[in-house]
Amino acid sequence: MRDVTTEPTSPAKPKDTVYREPRPVADFEFDEAVACVFDDMLNRSVPFYQEIQRMIAEMATDFATEGSNIYDLGCSTGNTLLSLGAAVGKSVKLIGVDYSEDMLKRCRDNLADHGFEHAHELICADLNQGMHIEGASMVTMVLTMQFIRPLYRDTLTTSILQGLNDNGCLILVEKVLGEDSVFNRLFIKYYYDLKKRRGYSELEIAQKREALENVLVPYRLMENREMLLRAGFRCCDVFFKWYNFCGMVALK
Ligand SMILES: C[S@@+](CC[C@H](N)C(=O)[O-])C[C@H]1O[C@@H](n2cnc3c(N)ncnc32)[C@H](O)[C@@H]1O
Q1: Among the atoms of ligand 1, which is closest to the Cα of residue 39?
Q2: Partners of 160 in the β-ladder
Q3: How far does the centroid of ligand 1 lie from the alpha carbon of residue 135, in Å?
Q4: Per residue in 17-32, pLDDT tens?
Q5: What is the distance in A from the centroid of ligand 1 to the CA of 144?
Q6: What confidence tier does 2 reach under pLDDT thresholds 50, 70, 90?
Q7: pLDDT tens, position by position, 60-113
Q8: Whole-prediction pTM
């Protein structure tokens, strides 16, 4: 089948071969080995990643207010910061947060390579420990809440809400479970088919799935929605959905 979801990847980015060879089972980590191939991993593992980035930037043009902060929690190599920086005015400060020093190093290099001059700050912090957020018109969490221990997700969501200005928004992109086991099984099958079309072998897919088993804990779309409303967001909507991937926007 022709891959209609293939998106452009930069030929300069190193290819993700982390799980190409057989390796002992160990939990997935955002370490140096992953950080240096992460952009290729994202582009080949996340359906419509570039379109999601474009949509986030589009929403930022409406939500970012002068003099406010935008936080990107789980900023990795800085792709969302780059998208946001291109979309919002210079008076908006961009704050990237990640607990992986390896990711933050890549992020710094990536921003420098792109000549990024937007006011910004990169913070190394573990979001499981909570996060102080202030003066935010927007908070983005792209594929990161799923890595926060479920025990701490409500607290983090509440502190995001507290740090948002009125009418500010949280953008939450997550891998999700299907609402029913039948859909769940099918969606995962279609997702692995996408990964195969994008050049990952059965072994790579199986080894990565095992590595993520205890690390990436997805909720159902409805569970994410309930978490947002429970924290006190006044409304929330879905702006992106592809099988087991979902983008939601919630308003303070
Ligand atoms: C899938 S990546 C996010 C991708 C990125 N948002 C983007 O759109 O390109 C998840 C990121 O969250 C970070 N992360 C995971 N758990 C974290 C935690 N407890 N505290 C802070 N960062 C965390 C990882 O280091 C990783 O960079």
Answers
A1: 9
A2: none
A3: 22
A4: 877 867 788 888 888 9
A5: 5
A6: very low
A7: 999 999 999 999 999 999 999 999 999 999 999 999 999 999 999 999 999 999
A8: 0.95
CB-CB contact of 233 with 166 (8 Å):
no
99, burial (CB in 10 Å: exposed 0-12, middle 13-18, buried 19+): middle
Does any ligand 1 atom lie closer than 6 A to the CB of residue 48? Answer: no
Q: How many domains does the chain contain in total? A: 1
In this structure, is residue 32 part of a structural domain? no
Any idea what the CATH number is for the domain that residue 172 is in? 3.40.50.150
The verdict on residue 139 lying in a domain is: yes
* Residue 183 belongs to some domain of the structure: no
| Closest atom of ligand 1 relative to the 142 alpha carbon | 6
Domain range for 108 is 49-177+215-251
| Spatial contact of 76 and 98, defined as CB atoms under 8 Å apart | yes
DSSP 218: P
Which numbered atom of ligand 1 lies nearest the CA of 149? Answer: 19
- Residue 73's SS3 state is strand
